[in-house]
Amino acid sequence: MMSKIVRTQANFLYPFILIFGFYVVAHGHITPGGGFQGGAVIATGVALVAVAYGYDTIKKWIKKTHLTAAEGIGLLCFIITAFIGLSTSFFYNFLANSGLIFGNRVPYGINPGYLNTAGTLPIMNLAVGIEVLGGLSVIIMYMMAYGREVKQ
Amino acid sequence: MIFNLPFITVIIVMFFGFYAMVFRRNLIKVVIGLDLVESAVNLFLVSLGYVKGGVAPIYTSAPSTHMVLPTPQALTLTSIVIGVATTAMLLSFCMVIYKHYGTLDTRKVRRLEE
Amino acid sequence: MNPWDLIMNNAPALAIAIPLLGAFVTPLINRAGRKAMLVWVIAVLAFTEFIALLLVYQVNTYGIQVYVFGANPHTLTVPPDSGGIPVRIIFTIDGMSAFTALISATLGLVVGIYSVGSEKFQTAQEKFFALLLLLVVGMMGMALTGDIFNFFVFLEINSLAAAALVSYHLNKGKAVEAAFKYAVVSSIGALMILFAIAILYGEYDALNMAMIAQRMYQTGFSTYDMIAMTLILVTLAMKCGAVPMHYWVPDGYGEAPGGTSAILVVASQASLYGLFRMSFTVFGLSANTSSLGWFMIILGLLSMFIGVTMAFLQHDIKRLMAYHAVSQTGYMLLGVGVGLATLGTAAFNQYGLYAMEGGIFHIINHALYKGLLFLTAGAIIYRVGTSDLNKMGGLAHSMKFTAVFFLIGAFAIAGIPPFNGFASKLMIYESVYQLNPFLAIVAAIVSMLTLASFLKVFHSAFLGPKIYDVKEVPKSMLFAMSILAFFIILFGIFPNIAIHYLVAPAAHALANPLGYITKVLGGGA
Lengths: 152, 114, 525
What we know:
- The structure holds three protein chains of three kinds.
- Chain A is an all-alpha fold.
- Chain A has helices at 4-26, 35-53, 55-61, 64-84, 120-151.
- Chain A has one domain (4-151).
- Chain A is built from five helices and no strands.
- In chain A, α4 (64-84) runs antiparallel to α5 (120-151).
- The relative contact order of chain B is 0.13.
- Chain B contains three helices and no strands.
- Chain B has a single domain (2-48, 68-101), classed as Helix Hairpins, CATH 1.10.287.
- Chain C is mostly helical.
- Chain C is built from 20 helices and two strands.
- The model of chain C has no long low-confidence stretch (mean pLDDT 86).
- Classes of the chains: A mainly alpha, B mainly alpha, C mainly alpha.
- The interface between A and B is medium-sized, with 20 and 14 residues.
């Protein structure tokens, strides 16, 4: 556990990092960024809190099994989305321009960015985001746990 | 000359990376050297994608002849993702080696030849 | 659309999608119990094997197959609005790809069955099997892809999964040390390949192998191509374990758990496939194939000779076999190198193609018998607990089946007639002799030395008085070994089965880069 100043700063920054990360994930198909980048940003938030509070405190808040589950669910969502298009071809973008969810056309010209476009891409971005935030956070958690074991 | 600056940087960073990998005796520094080489390759990929006067392909109203192809960025991103996985794995190996050997000195981590 | 059509149309994609899905689901299924997880893994591997057989059938019946991810229809390689450039990720399957994919899937299945028994008492088995499936994904992807950047990605998947598998038995940190070495070496290699890919991309504005080959043919072979080619070929030669870049092989193979060394052999052969694919299809039209061929021949000679002589010094059974793997890789490089050196001349049809067939036939033979030998070594270590040959002895009394399987593998690797090693080695000797008699002489001498080395191993491990009071290994391990032994004998007695259906299409596919390019760039709606 680090000093009070560091912990307060971490408390303050944590929600902003999470929101920024989710923003990057959700807007992955219309702005630079995407699932991996957003997931990595969220994982840095987890890392910040983990460093500020130390492993003993944080392991009560964040369970490794939940993170592993997030990793598995993200991967499954990704590959199942790819499988659904199989009747045409693997990874086929069956939602694009279909009028269903995420099925609108990208408007031409200056616009504030419509999220409801691009077909399967946002779904895959979300899946990758969940997977990366789980994967990177669990790496940090395991490394902290193992580091303690090595020290003792 | 000034336009070759990114490529010169690539060579310099790569040289430092290889230097660290060959001459440093700490396994963590070997991993850092590997990361330097990787950054150099990524920089090379990104600088290849630079087009003078090009427009990022996220503006729908930009003239299509000026838009740059986003492929080099996509390649770099993939390479960064792979690099994260490699680095994480190598650092975990370092932790296990430190636990069992009590050192990260490459001169002492030599039980395989016995 | 009915399921059969779905599978037939999407076979190339399913070849990687199924093991990938399997790897992701394995940790989740493990919560339902170990047995369910094992059934799932074996089922996924068996289905992958089925898809690989289907690919071989499709290639033999309908010619080169292309599969474009996300396209409508899935054979649309060059979309009408792309300006004549293949923009999407394309899998191109010709005889050689299908051949490599089949070997990868087969050894994956065999090692999967074997590991059910051999890893029974380990922790975190679901991770082991997930990594095994990922390794299969990496190998299949390397074999099937028609895009150099994808090739790099699958190479990295292959290396990461393999390195993690090597470290699976910590073995007081020794296995992790070997895995660290393996991971560093393969990462540098992969980065150099990425550097070469960047050069090629900057020069030709394309990532598709066929497109690069065509543009290189049109503009001529430049200095940049030379740099890229050197980087790619040297790296892949290192990854397939050719001397003088073989130093990671004995560590990696030697410390890998149980039967996993057997699949590492195939993982190296996927790099060998990459070496052949790059030198024939991508650079074959433009570069000087004669000097490239001699580069491979010299690498092959060095590997054969140094590998076998180093093997004599070893007293660790797995390290010894690893040096023999280096030595056998030399035969494949020699055979295919002779084919490449004579490509486009009259000599190619006289003996060059025959040498290539010998070299390619040796790939599958090596996967089978070296796989079997590593599995027997794993069986011995599983029961005896040591890999030191000086501490073993008298195992033939208690492990009769293992001893028989070991003998089959040893005779096959030494090229004794009723086994498959003889068939491919004979093809190599006969054809290589016509290019230069010296090559055939070295190959024959190395073969004899191999036999001597394996007789030594058999003597010190299996003969002599009974030291260890051990039982035979579990049935799943014996079953896995018997599959490989069956194919060794089958291909030894009827080599024409393998040559007709697998090897000849592969050799012809490699020798015909123009057919590959035309198929990919021909549009194909």
